[in-house]
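Input record, target 12 of the design panel.
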């Protein structure tokens, strides 16, 4: 009789220990998931260290590929880009790059910019295909540079590199999502903008 009670007691203890271990394990996994979700909510869709590093590396590749030294056809544009602009298109690492130079300032015109591009150049905006980066928005990486390659910031001090203004009613993604053809590229619509100047591909 005593032996039977001992066996039952040992079995109950085993179940209790096993249950506690499972609960601890579940709690740990649940905690990890909650922490990951919390971190993902805290991580901004643009301007984080990974986006900034990618944008800085991209600038160096643009320099090497000649994107920053070749001129394109100037044309009159509208906000939020420059009053006068030019577009270049090419590939880096096999992925499409669209670079737009934005010109502005007192006396800006196609003729004045043509005579002195550096005087009127205000910013350089780039769309770079980055496979797997943002499937919901055609995997485009967005960045806005100063003429010297420094990444510009928005009024809140966030660097404009990455999924810029994702989920917001205005900004890069919101605006370009309305482009004809669903490819986020206005320049492919010849009725809106001229065809971009093509830059030779750079494999790196």
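The sequence produced for target 12 reads:
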């Amino acid at each position: 009789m005593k032996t039977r009670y001992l066996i039952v007691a040992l079995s109950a203890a085993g179940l209790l220990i096993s249950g506690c271990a499972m609960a601890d394990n579940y709690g740990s996994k649940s905690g990890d998931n909650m922490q990951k979700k919390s971190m993902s909510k805290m991580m901004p869709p643009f301007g984080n260290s990974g986006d900034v590093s990618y944008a800085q590396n991209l600038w160096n590749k643009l320099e090497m590929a000649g994107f920053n030294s070749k001129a394109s056809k100037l044309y009159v544009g509208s906000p939020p880009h420059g009053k006068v602009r030019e577009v270049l298109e090419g590939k880096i690492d096999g992925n499409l790059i669209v670079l737009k130079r934005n010109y502005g300032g007192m006396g800006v015109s196609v003729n004045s910019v043509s005579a002195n591009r550096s005087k009127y150049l205000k910013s350089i905006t780039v769309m770079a295909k980055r496979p797997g980066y943002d499937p919901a928005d055609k995997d485009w990486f967005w960045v806005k540079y100063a003429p010297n390659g420094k990444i510009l910031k928005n009024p809140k001090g966030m660097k404009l590199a990455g999924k810029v203004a994702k989920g917001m009613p205005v900004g890069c993604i919101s605006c370009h999502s309305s482009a004809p053809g669903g490819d986020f590229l206005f320049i492919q619509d010849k009725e809106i903008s001229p065809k971009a100047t093509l830059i030779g591909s750079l494999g790196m």
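The chain has two domains: 1-42, 49-198.
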